[in-house]
Amino acid sequence: MIPDFKQTVPIDQIGVEERVARFRTRSIKKESKLFALKLALRMVDLTTLEGMDSPGKVRQLCYKALYPHEIDPEIPQVAAICVYPNHVKLAVETLKGSGIHVASVATSFPSGMGRLESRIDEVKYAVEEGADEIDMVISRWAFLKGDYGYVYDEIAAIKEACGPAHLKVILETGELETYDNVRKASDIAMYAGADFIKTSTGKISPAATMPVTLVMLGAIRDYYIKTGNKVGMKPAGGIRDSKTALHYLVMVKETLGADWLDPDLFRFGASSLANDLLMQIIKQKTGHYQSPDYFSIG
Amino acid sequence: MSEKELTTRQSLRFDELWSYDPAPESPDYVKIKEQYQLFIDGKFQEPESGNYFDSVNPSNEEVLALFAEAGKKDVDKAVAAARKAHNGVWSKMPAKERGKYIYRIARLLQERAREFAIIESMDSGKPIRESRDIDIPQVIAHFFYHAGWADKLKYAFPGVDPKPLGVAGQIIPWNFPLLMAAWKIAPALATGNTVVIKPAETTPLSALKLAELIQDADLPPGVVNIVTGAGETGMEIVRHPDIDKIAFTGSTEVGKIIQKAMAGTDRKYTLELGGKAANIIFDDAPVNQAVEGIVNGIFFNQGHVCCAGSRLLVQEGIADELVQKLKMRMETLIVGDPLDKNTDIGAINSKVQLDRILGFLSESVESDQRIYQTKCDLPEKGYWCRPTLVENVSQSHRIVQEEVFGPVLTIQTFRTPAEAVSLTNNTPYGLSGGVWTDKGSKIFKVGKSIRAGVIWANTFNKFDPTSPFGGYKESGIGREGGIHGLSPYLELS
Questions:
Q1: B22 has a chain A CB within 8 A of its CB
Q2: Is B272 a catalytic residue?
């Protein structure tokens, strides 16, 4: 049953932020640290979403996804790469047979300010080109105006256009401002068919934060308790270092449990995080920090 | 889909795949002597009786150190030293100079915060996360706050010339050993009184470490005297004719004994006693954050908190959802080594207290209440109690009426705000309470109807030196903290 989205599930800002502060006090050491670093790397969506993205740049990124640090064969692959629709085909070809997913932002990313028909066409195009994950943006203007029906319908329509591809719904939480809004937008997205909910485009500040992510994880848990369906979570933008990534994983573990400690249900949308994870993994294994120049840029 | 099927399918797995490796604070960092003396007149002195008692680490049952047992003669000496320091030095000193000493204590504590946190966790069993992030920072905040008042008392009480009472006798409990010492010592010193204080017999270590720090701070001899011992030592302080004021924090049972002893004398007293606070969750509450508040309310410091939210009152419509979420959250609580940075719940403070808690629980089993405990593993040695919920209880059950002082939460439901308030107030205690609702007007309406000294709204167990703390009814007399906490140490006529 679809709930009445006008009825907000209230979120207490202070309570959320205090809970996050508790997660940050967890001390992750030794084997549990190495495990988490490798897990975090497997959850990375390596991303390039610039107007200057060229085939050369996309190819570089794909190679980085395939060979994050060839010197150490135990280093796992990342989960996916994320590009604009016009580069999907090239990415699919380059990554063929690797198991690395190709995600594409569509639906007039990042503003969402297009006709619904053209946004749907863009999704269909990306899927036809071979994308198996679509990262859409919601119409924040409609949401902030209180037109929740519009947002629900657009997500449902785009989900349909995705066909077999997984749908990640970007809420752009930096524009929604309040945690109450984040919670409400999360609920709308999940009930409309999202496979993942995602914080940000990376083009608006603030992007992903731990409190925002916790509110969304709470929504995912409530949705799971009510329906039995598992929706994934993707914080994107602003997560640059391993320590922060581990705190995110602590938060996931203690909110949703082991099932969500899996690239199928949790992703990091990030570009520079991968190399910091690599650096920390090597540090855990050898006991020494290496210069950033020992890790290839994507 | 049947309800049972839903619950089975939707249980989350918190204990699998990834667990945190131990991350203990090293006790090598601190130096603990084999034996501690009484701190009287600025010197460490042996007890007249020559008797010593031990204090154990409740997480491994090992003896930490021996402590002197103060008898009548020792208390007499301490009171005489305090009187001499008061009449000769402390009350004559310009107030701003007095303030400087208190600031100095605060700064030294700040510098040695880590050492004090480790000591506190070893002696009391509380997790290092709490002693590091709550107890010790609060201790420091209390000294800083009261240092500021030292030379501003006439602004706190306009139109009167506040004068110190003289010698304060102070008796503190084992749940927040150093913090309770700070709550007592800081306002007494700021108002120009001198102190004879007795820490609890199971947790005297941090107070004796504080004595060393007070020596380092060059506080004039006799201004703070620390005598260790059990109830008998405490009664020597209570009965002492040359003490002007008694400040006691502890059980209501002992509070009543003290009150009887003080009757008919002209000595002042304040009592901070037990509590049985209700945490009221309305159906319009932010449920996920309320679960956190409930957990912090009852499992903070193993539930050894006089203002703990030990009674959960939840509106019927959301009771099932809330309890399910509370149980999920409890599965993520880590019980174990107090020095491990990831420990959420440490050891029960003593064998005596553990037996008392278990006594309540076995009585609950006998009277057909439903007990839920988390599945976590417990260490073999030491005193431990899993986080516990008790359902199927009524207002008449002993576990709902009496203070358990452990990680045990009773759950009752209500239908209307009026019913919630009447259940809340239907207890001999009145120390604290919690209200959870997203509706501001309801917070004020319900909050004003609760007969308790501290009401938290959409949060719980928040402390601040600027805020007065104290109880109604059998929870005590007088207030500590803020301006209200200064007046019991002052002659204001």
A1: yes
A2: yes
